[in-house]
Specification:
14 strands, Jelly Rolls, four-stranded antiparallel β-sheet, 1 helix, mainly beta
Length: 221
């Protein structure tokens, strides 16, 4: 009986150790000293433009705030940034004015970005939007006769599918399968997926295909 009990104890202990060893192996196949190389491809990237989302749209029509949630010509082909340009009688623009763009990120989570107009020049956004849902012009953004027009277009910043820890955590970029001569411009954020973007050196013309090889930081789902 004593031998049988000893055998059972040994069997249970061995099984437990085996299970723990395998659990550790399958739970953490990436050692702390290792990094994971990711690749991402963007095919037939639409040309960047200043007016392919909105063209000469009306902003404020009075001293009150205004929200536009329809009339967008297209949605982004990939998560990417926006450029907003005031036109028309820009002398009516009451600076500083903060225009807010609302939309969603790669995962469909609601995000927004402030576009601060301290002059009448175009403002380029930094976040990658999967969709645009509305634009809000604050009260007193324009003066009477409220005849500023507004155009919105895609920028060159494409959303990266994972978060990165450092802007230098990339290996190389490809244009049509060949390495780009000039490195892309990378922007990163450790936790916000929409703030991880890449601007390739090559031309966005609706036919070129780009690829990026980079290190992620395992902090974005």
């Amino acid at each position: 009986m004593r031998q049988f009990l000893s055998f059972l104890i040994l069997l249970v202990a061995s099984t437990s150790l085996f299970a723990q060893a395998n659990a550790i192996y399958y739970r953490d196949i990436k050692l702390p000293s290792q990094k994971m190389v990711e690749s991402q491809t963007w095919t037939t990237v639409a040309a960047n433009a200043t007016d392919n989302v909105l063209l000469d749209a009306t902003g404020n029509t009075s001293a009150a705030a205004k929200t536009t949630s329809s009339g967008f010509l297209v949605q982004p082909d990939y998560p990417r940034n926006f450029i907003i340009t005031p036109g028309g009688t820009t002398a009516s623009l009451n600076t500083p004015c903060t225009v807010v763009v609302n939309g969603t990120n790669k995962y469909g989570t609601a995000i927004y970005e402030n576009f601060v107009f301290s002059t009448t020049s175009a403002v380029t956004g930094a976040k990658a939007f999967k969709t645009i849902t509305s634009i809000v012009w604050p009260a007193l953004c324009e003066n009477s006769p409220y005849d500023v027009t507004w155009s919105v277009g895609f920028g060159k910043k494409l959303g990266i599918k994972k978060c990165m820890a450092n802007a230098g955590d990339f290996l190389f970029s490809l244009l049509a399968g060949s390495k780009e001569a000039n490195a892309p411009t990378i922007a990163v954020n450790a936790t916000a997926i929409e703030s991880n973007t890449v601007s390739f050196d090559g031309t966005y013309n609706g036919s070129n295909t780009f690829a990026l090889y980079f290190f992620q930081n395992f902090r974005c789902n």
